[in-house]
Amino acid sequence: MKIGTSRVEAFSDGVIAIVITIMVLELKLPDIQKEASTRDILHHLTELAPYFVAYVFSFMMVGIFWTNHHHMFHLLEKTNEPLLGLNLFFLFWMSLIPFASGIMGANPWLPTSSAIYGFIMLMTTLSLTIMRIYTLKQGLIHKDEDQNLTYKIYTASLQGKTRSYIGTVAYLLAIPLAYVHILLAYLCFIIPPILFFIPHGIDDEKLAARIEEKN
Amino acid sequence: MKIGTSRVEAFSDGVIAIVITIMVLELKLPDIQKEASTRDILHHLTELAPYFVAYVFSFMMVGIFWTNHHHMFHLLEKTNEPLLGLNLFFLFWMSLIPFASGIMGANPWLPTSSAIYGFIMLMTTLSLTIMRIYTLKQGLIHKDEDQNLTYKIYTASLQGKTRSYIGTVAYLLAIPLAYVHILLAYLCFIIPPILFFIPHGIDDEKLAARIEEKN
Amino acid sequence: MKIGTSRVEAFSDGVIAIVITIMVLELKLPDIQKEASTRDILHHLTELAPYFVAYVFSFMMVGIFWTNHHHMFHLLEKTNEPLLGLNLFFLFWMSLIPFASGIMGANPWLPTSSAIYGFIMLMTTLSLTIMRIYTLKQGLIHKDEDQNLTYKIYTASLQGKTRSYIGTVAYLLAIPLAYVHILLAYLCFIIPPILFFIPHGIDDEKLAARIEEKN
Amino acid sequence: MKIGTSRVEAFSDGVIAIVITIMVLELKLPDIQKEASTRDILHHLTELAPYFVAYVFSFMMVGIFWTNHHHMFHLLEKTNEPLLGLNLFFLFWMSLIPFASGIMGANPWLPTSSAIYGFIMLMTTLSLTIMRIYTLKQGLIHKDEDQNLTYKIYTASLQGKTRSYIGTVAYLLAIPLAYVHILLAYLCFIIPPILFFIPHGIDDEKLAARIEEKN
Predict the structure, then answer these.
(1) D33 — phi, psi (to 5°)?
(2) Residue C33 binned pLDDT confidence (cut-offs 50, 70, 90)
(3) DSSP, residue by residue, chain A
(4) Contacts of residue B104 in chain D, CB cutoff 8 Å?
(5) For the whole model, what pTM was predicted?
(6) Residue from C59, C21, C36 nearest D116 by CA
(7) Chains that touch C (3 or more CB pairs under 8 A)
(8) CA-to-CA distance for B90 and B104, rounded, in angstroms?
(9) pLDDT of C1
(10) Contacts of D9 in chain B (CB under 8 A)
């Protein structure tokens, strides 16, 4: 990790690692008796199915947020006090994902569950978007002697910002659409991960490694 | 992170990251049935509202404590054994914040809740204050060849100490005032965060980055 | 930690540390009364025994997975985006071990418990195997000027891959065998740890230290 | 952190940070009603008192174990595979401290509670002692060109070993003595922390900083 951003990254990693892991505590087989049969367990697992689907999806989303956060900080040269505050704001919304995931698991077909889930995801994405805009405006982005590298860093930052914008809009739409038809909300939910997995010209991980080498 | 303080910072970060995240486990929608309606969920959310407010406030406070801890350690050149002990004492009180937050959420208007919350916050602030005084007295603060930088480091340390004093007094007053009128206690609670967000001439984060560069 | 893989390792360590520790939350003495007698406690402990055995075994397995992950990443020179994804896939299955461990503790003699436990272990091992194959194919493995060291690194990578293959097969067999006789499944479960503890010519930890020195 | 031991230390820190923090989850005010009075809360707090005392003591002990682990690893030059195993064995027993602490809180005056608590502490101390002996025997201790520093490192290692021996004996005695008189067990429990806080000629933290500087 680079000097100047290392402890913020380490603390954020800690919080995100806990968020992604405590979600599994929602998966409980509640009333298993000593003398449970295979049928009992399968019955309980069936009941857990929506929690499980919510867990898989939320795990993937937290993983994507971590990757984005990881790449965004790699493009930075330094932090400042307001950025620490924005980062805590981002971690706050992130910490509510297990809560929203639990509501989704309990009532997957209820529009209000999707609205709550969408709202938490909206705020998480929005706070990341604000951080991206802030770092670009304040010139906290790494500037390199190598013009080509600097160009790539800015392109990556702008691409990240664009994808954050699209994600924000998708979650914003998901909330009212959940009350039109639940599947429309679900459709909105899968846009950001699809966007994330589409190759976008720049391998952020390679770029990050190249920036680290320079330091 | 600087050599000599790195593992203490890493361990403290771990503990603080867990403290800030497990508080979310207090937010539970207890009796959600499979067939819950939007009304049920909204009803449960309304009941959760005080827990939620307590969570938001406590998350912010833990974030502020982390930032202060982070900056304080950045100004240090080295640690010694008593400082490790004082740091554990600080982490101990910090670890009780989720407990105090839960009491606040359950009975937000009861003076005793505020008194307990105030007491935990008092002890956390007090232990940080003691650490600050100790590091100043023992000369553990970073001394730089650059006179100007050394001057800034001392100014930042002293400012941190002053704000810690004011925080200590605010929480000390909150405990008896909760029994006079609950809003007086709440007023005391918001003094330290307001103090934290008021600009105070020095950007601690920039200062920290400059000290790191020198090492 | 080496530049280029450090934050991925740190994040993975965080998740694995939480996985290994929250399993202990399954160990609860549920109805201890204030006036419990020694007999009551011993009775509760006896009831907890299968949870305890499951905890010991799962703790050992998570420890082994961590060691393997730790050594595998030490042999790498760099990461790329798909590897980040594969790593999250690995952490996902790992995060389900406490869940599977809880089912085993509740019904240790039920074939379905073993089948579920075997399935989670299978997927964890399989995702690690895929990562190993991927890093070998993509040439992410550290290449050293010292031919002898490069040779050792490849040998260690291939040995790791072979052991991952055997582990995958063992867990694959455990699932159907659990329904033939439960002890056959248990037999399969102990193959991977035995394999791990058998000396295999290369001290991965020494090798890792030598690679780190070079960087 | 020094190259060669850094990731083991980071992983151990993660586990220990979680162990020390999840103990607080035992502190629950179980049946607080919306309309609880000050009397209710004080009544609940009184009932929690033994849990609280157990928490304070266990927090201190985990803190001491962390400090000892931290100093022991600072004296090392390298790790090897068996040491990784011994470290996991140590972390395993450490992870059971919250469990033992919960039993103590529920039945503080029952000899069996003290016996269980003593046993977990015994095994934690014993596994640390074995690690110390192993690192001394295998020559994993840092050797410095500076004879004086090397001498101090060995003295610190041997002192650490002696204190570990005494701790092991104290916990070993605590188990049978709990059945003679509970206070005798408690007496044994406070020997190791007293030993820890007695100054012993060497400031391990300063020594650790000096070793780090050399690397």
Answers:
(1) -90, 160
(2) low
(3) --TTTHHHHHHHHHHHHHHHHHGGGG---TT--TT--HHHHHHHHHHHHHHHHHHHHHHHHHHHHHHHHHHHHHTBS---HHHHHHHHHHHHHHHTHHHHHHHHHH-TT-HHHHHHHHHHHHHHHHHHHHHHHHHHHTT-B---SSHHHHHHHHHHHHHHHHHHHHHHHHHHHHHHHHHH-HHHHHHHHHHHHHHHHS--S--HHHHHHHHHHH-
(4) none
(5) 0.89
(6) C36
(7) A, D
(8) 21
(9) 42
(10) 7
Confidence of residue D1 (pLDDT cuts 50, 70, 90): very low
Distance CA D83, CA D138 (A): 10
Asked if D81 is an interface residue toward chain B (Cβ–Cβ < 8 A), one would say no
Rg (CA), chain B: 19
Query: How many distinct helices (H) and strands (E) make up chain B?
Result: 8, 0
Model confidence pLDDT, tens digit, residues B9-51: 888 988 999 999 888 887 876 555 556 777 878 888 888 888 8
Q: What is the ipTM of this complex?
A: 0.86
How does the average pLDDT of chain A come out, rounded?
Answer: 85
Give the pLDDT confidence score for residue B1 in this predicted structure: 43
Q: Name D47's Cβ contacts closer than 8 Å, sequence gap at least 6.
A: none
What is the pLDDT at residue A30?
Answer: 58
* Residue whose C-alpha is closest to residue A97's, from A111, A75, A76, A116: A116
Asked if C209's CB is within 8 angstroms of D103's CB, the reply is no
Mean model confidence pLDDT for chain C? 85
pLDDT higher than 90, residue A117: yes
* Residue C141 phi, psi (nearest 5): -70, 145
Q: How many interchain CB pairs under 8 A, A with B?
A: 96
What is the arithmetic mean of pLDDT over C141-163?
A: 81
CA distance D47 to chain B (A): 15
Mean of the pLDDT values across residues D5-32? 81
Contact D103 C37 (CB under 8 A): no
What are A27-60's pLDDT values in tens digits?
876 555 556 777 878 888 888 888 899 999 999 9
Query: Which one of A15, A79, A80 has the shortest CB-CB distance to B21?
Result: A15
| Single-letter amino acid code for the residue at D25 | L
pLDDT at residue A1 greater than cutoff 60 = no
Token reading at B145: 């060849």
Which residues from D are below 8 Å from B92, CB to CB?
56, 59-60, 63
C194 in A contact zone (CB under 8 Å)? no
Q: How many CB pairs under 8 A join B and D?
A: 93
